[in-house]
């Protein structure tokens, strides 16, 4: 499992650093069939969401946030239904693995979490050191 965690967090790290060539190369090495696929990105996403909403958020606040994300036309975000992203954010706040227990294809789940994590990290203005801390904490949570 450690190899999968490391690869996923390298993908997220490349995205956060705007290293799009590295992101594409590292993404190609991920295996959606791996039973642990998406867990590390999911952990990082949950940490980022809880930092973005440190006191939690109402359904209305989450809906407004998602509308803002979609309205800003972040790369790839327009490919996701608002209700899906709202469930994903709400689930991230509560530390769950998948929104409402839904079984979504792993690639859709990881793509949505990558897009939202990038957005949140940019909003919070996390510098390289803080990004590394986020990735290290996500790795610790998944491997603990």
**% residues in beta strands:** under 5%
Overall mean pLDDT stands at 87
The level of helicity is: 55-70%
Largest sheet properties: none
Query: Which structural class is indicated by helix and strand composition?
Result: mainly alpha
CA-based shape = globular
Helix segment count?
Answer: 7
Radius of gyration: 14 Å
Structural account:
With 144 residues, this protein is mainly α. It has 7 helices and no strands. Helices cover 68% and strands 0% of the residues. Helix 4 crosses helix 5 (82-94).
Any descriptors?
single chain, 144 residues, globular, 7 helices, mainly alpha
Q: Secondary-structure map with pairings?
A:
Blueprint: H1 2-16, H2 20-28, H3 39-52, H4 59-71, H5 82-94, H6 106-123, H7 128-143
Helix pairs in contact: 1-2, 1-3, 1-7, 3-5, 3-6, 3-7, 4-5
Summarize the model shown:
The chain has helices at 2-16, 20-28, 39-52, 59-71, 82-94, 106-123, 128-143. The chain is mainly α.
